[in-house]
């Protein structure tokens, strides 16, 4: 067997002011054929798992390019087309192949191309013809369009959010692909449109039990090859935005349809109950100040660079100043220009500085003050599980009695080491403000006396009922209350 593999992925928040070009891919991951490292990033596990399983089979794996850019805004059109055509050219050169196994995200939007994954998959299908297996692993924060479903044999999405299972799901993908290539199964996709959009953290109920139930069905029912909840991505203003239930059966389309509908409606029935309880900045700061002990972690959850925002909002900081909070540290506020000024001033300097809230409306106002430059670190990094996440040249400043980290490379706050590398002992502070929606939880919960999920300003389109969509459909919950027409037909 000869199998072609490649990866092309990013998550596009179409409301983000941070556009993506080739340099952004090169800064995150750009690996030409054979150059992909041994460990995968989020969307490239089909390549690393593929190396292992094809070696066991004695099959030939032909690697194309792997490219991943951290979540941000619109992808430059030329950048997308160049990367796409690079991979398609590698596929043509690899022919004949028995299968194409891809790592995608599913929410990439390029200037002039709303459904990049559909575009890529359709072109792959045209090159290999109708009989070659085409499959992909994707992130559930994606748009399952009709075009991409028509072009591929089957998809497997991550089940967990935070996405801790991307390697296991790549193993599912390859297992089904091998079974198909050896004639044991005939994968068929059945898709149910849940007619909703929501946020589904699997670290809490009710989504935890729902995902456990899917895993149990996959174990118990021999007809079911894979089950995926496609969460949808509310920050992507595209026509087919929304939550879908995907069932892959072994040739049992009718059974798949019924199961997708049953599970999809169960998911729909709990709409509005999945998200973490959120409070506004006034309540968050008051609650943190009133806490008997620290550190209280305030997650500025929607100004999350991991969701494509700039990460420079000052709404929580303004509230801290208004409520006279001290003994507080903020990590981070993205402001390359302010960092440059502080670097020029040097450690120990006291300078007038304006910083923050320059990227987009709804992120507060720039902060002015006489700041003390406490510590400068070039190429700063925080821990992230077993590895490190860079946050660029960074400066620790003190103003209004608050310690603030300004940085140059947008990164969500994964780990408390973010503070220690900048000379701040996170456990000694009463209040820690961080920018992350949910990924921070595993590490910060170990040191926090309390965690507050704070929805401050409007850096991110997190309220679909009120988001000014121009392309997304409006016939789904919560834009309408009864999208399935149950109340009118009952
Ligand atoms: Zn995701």
Task: Give an account of the 3D structure.
The chain has 490 residues and is α/β, with parallel strands linked by helices. 29% of the residues lie in helices and 25% in strands. The protein is built from 14 helices and 17 strands. The strands form 3 sheets. Strands 12-13-14-15-11-16-10-17 form an 8-stranded mixed β-sheet, with helices on both faces. Helix 4 links the parallel strand 4 and strand 5. Helix 2 crosses helix 6 and helix 3 runs parallel beside helix 4. The chain is globular. 53% of the residues are buried. Bound molecules: zinc ion (ZN).
Walk me through the topology.
Blueprint lengths: L1 E8 L12 H7 E3 L13 H13 L2 E9 L8 H18 L4 E6 L11 H13 L4 E6 L7 H6 L2 E4 L8 H16 L5 E7 L13 H14 L3 E7 L13 E7 L2 H17 L11 H10 L5 E5 L14 H8 L5 E7 L1 H10 L4 E6 L11 E18 L2 E13 L2 E6 L9 H4 L10 E4 L6 H4 L5 E5 L31 H4 L1
Parallel strand pairs: 1-3, 1-4, 4-5, 5-6, 10-16, 10-17, 11-15, 11-16
Antiparallel strand pairs: 2-3, 7-9, 8-9, 12-13, 13-14, 14-15
Helix pairs in contact: 2-6, 3-4
Count of individual beta strands: 17
Largest sheet: 8 strands, mixed
* Helix content percent band: 25-40%
Total DSSP helices = 14
Q: Averaging pLDDT over every residue, what do you get?
A: 96
Major beta sheet, strand line-up: 12-13-14-15-11-16-10-17
- Helix and strand content put the structural class at alpha/beta
- Beta-strand fraction estimate: 15-25%
Can you list the ligands bound to this structure?
zinc ion
Q: Round the Cα radius of gyration to an integer and report it.
A: 23 Å
Low-confidence stretches: none
Shape: globular
Span of the ends, CA to CA: 54 Å
């Amino acid at each position: 067997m000869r199998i072609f593999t490649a990866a092309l992925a990013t998550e596009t928040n179409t409301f983000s002011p941070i556009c993506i070009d080739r340099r952004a891919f090169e800064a995150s991951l750009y690996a030409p054929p054979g150059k992909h490292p041994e460990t995968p990033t989020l969307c490239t596990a089909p390549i690393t798992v593929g190396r292992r399983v094809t070696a066991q089979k004695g099959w030939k794996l032909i690697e194309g390019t792997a490219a991943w850019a951290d979540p941000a805004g619109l992808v430059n059109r030329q950048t997308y087309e160049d990367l796409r055509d690079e991979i398609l050219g590698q596929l043509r050169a690899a022919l004949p192949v028995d299968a194409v196994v891809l790592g995608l995200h599913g929410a990439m939007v390029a200037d002039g191309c709303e459904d990049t994954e559909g575009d890529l998959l359709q072109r792959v299908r045209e090159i290999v013809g109708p009989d070659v297996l085409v499959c992909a692993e994707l992130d559930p924060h994606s748009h399952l369009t009709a075009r991409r479903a028509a072009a591929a044999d089957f998809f497997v999405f991550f089940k967990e959010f935070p996405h801790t299972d991307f390697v296991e799901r790549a193993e599912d993908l390859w297992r089904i692909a091998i079974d198909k290539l050896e004639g044991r199964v005939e994968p068929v996709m059945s898709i149910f449109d849940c007619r909703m959009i929501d946020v589904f953290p699997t670290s809490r109920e009710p989504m935890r039990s729902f995902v456990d139930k899917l895993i149990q069905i996959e174990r118990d029912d021999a007809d079911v090859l894979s089950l995926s909840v496609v969460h949808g991505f509310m920050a992507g203003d595209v026509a087919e935005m929304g939550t879908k239930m995907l069932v892959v059966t072994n040739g049992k389309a009718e059974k798949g349809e019924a199961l997708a509908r049953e599970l999809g409606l169960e998911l729909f029935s709990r709409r509005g109950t999945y998200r973490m309880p959120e409070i506004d900045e006034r309540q968050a700061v008051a609650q943190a100040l009133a806490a008997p002990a620290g550190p209280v972690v305030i997650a500025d959850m929607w100004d999350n660079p991991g969701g494509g925002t700039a990460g420079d909002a000052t709404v929580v900081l303004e509230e801290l100043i208004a409520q006279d909070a001290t003994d507080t540290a903020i990590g981070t506020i993205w402001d390359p220009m302010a960092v440059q000024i502080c670097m020029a001033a040097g450690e120990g300097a006291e300078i007038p500085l304006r910083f923050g809230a320059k990227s987009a409306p709804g992120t507060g106002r720039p902060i002015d003050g006489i700041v003390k430059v406490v510590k400068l670190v070039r190429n700063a990094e925080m821990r992230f599980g077993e590895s490190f996440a860079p946050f660029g040249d960074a400066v620790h400043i003190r103003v209004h009695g608050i310690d603030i980290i300004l940085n140059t490379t947008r990164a969500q706050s994964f780990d408390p080491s973010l503070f220690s590398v900048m000379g701040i002992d996170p456990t000694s502070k009463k209040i820690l403000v961080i920018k992350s929606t949910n990924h921070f939880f595993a590490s910060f919960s170990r040191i926090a006396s309390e965690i507050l999920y704070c929805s401050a300003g409007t850096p991110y389109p997190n309220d679909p009922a009120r988001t000014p969509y121009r392309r997304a459909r409006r016939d789904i919950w919560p834009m309408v209350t009864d999208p399935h027409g149950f109340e009118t037909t009952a």
